[in-house]
Design a protein that fits this description.
The structure is a single chain. About 60% of the residues lie in helices and about 15% in strands. It is an alpha+beta fold. It has a 4-stranded antiparallel β-sheet with strand order 1-2-3-4. Helix 1 (about 10-30) runs parallel beside helix 3 (about 95-115), helix 2 packs antiparallel against helix 3 (about 95-115) and helix 3 runs antiparallel to helix 4. The chain starts with 8 loop residues before the first helix and ends with a helix.
């Protein structure tokens, strides 16, 4: 496992904060909603409790259960890689911010899979009868991290010209 250096600490704290916010929001949803229950908050947004045994957009949700361990293993491998990258590039702020977001989100969803057997999703955006697949804080952090990785790479390429 990657040795934790002092320069990694801010990035690990950020990942921990994301993880804690993700888990706190899921505990609140679990305590306030039954599975499938929804509460309308606006004309385009609901809180809803859904369980996703698959990955993004319910990918492999209909599989026989092996996907739980498959996605948990992917999260574990990603965690190790991210720890290595954070240790190797601690001064690259946007890169490390992106990795920290992905780390916090990946660990949050992996904990759900281990504890519940599925991921708790609850943010439901919709428009004119169309619903975007429900998601959670961890998914939001992973998406933000992925967007920041793309931005970081575009900026790196631009600087190298």
């Amino acid at each position: 496992m990657a040795k934790v250096s002092k320069s990694m600490l801010p990035w690990l704290v950020l990942a921990l904060l994301i993880f804690m916010l993700d888990q706190l929001t899921k505990v609140l949803i679990l305590g306030s909603f039954e599975h499938g229950q929804a509460r309308t908050l606006s004309s385009f947004f609901n809180l809803v409790r859904v369980h996703n045994s698959g990955a993004a957009f319910s990918f492999l949700a209909g599989a026989s259960g092996w996907q739980r361990w498959f996605f948990t293993a992917i999260a574990a491998a990603a965690t190790l890689l991210i720890l290595y990258l954070l240790r190797s590039h601690p001064t690259q702020k946007l890169f490390c911010f992106a990795l920290s977001c992905i780390l916090g989100g990946a660990v949050g969803n992996a904990i759900d899979r281990l504890v519940h057997g599925h991921v708790i999703d609850f943010l439901d955006f919709h428009w004119a009868g169309w619903h975007f697949p429900a998601f959670n804080v961890a998914d939001s952090a992973i998406t933000l991290g992925a967007a920041c990785l793309i931005l970081d790479e575009l900026l790196r390429v631009r600087r190298s010209r």
